[in-house]
Amino acid sequence: MAHNVSQDEELLGILRDVATHRFHQGRQINPGSMLYQTAELATTSGYLENAVLDANYSNRLASLDLTQAKLTDLGEAKLRELAGGPSTETSGGNHGY
Q: Record's superkingdom (predicted)?
């Protein structure tokens, strides 16, 4: 049975998996999927570097490759926040841009 997760839960999973180098190959996925949308959010929010996302891979598929992705300092802070640990993230600021 499928289990629907919140975007925060999906983001926590992605950040944990990137931190522990669990992505060993790229994949083609639905660009409307929670995984793709959350990986895109993580990238545009500055939580990941070296992530490769391509929504124009084909008519119905996007390409997602997190094999070389790494957490930024902001990503590490977000991971701590989502995991329930102390966060050094502050509101405002330049967010690593």
A: Bacteria
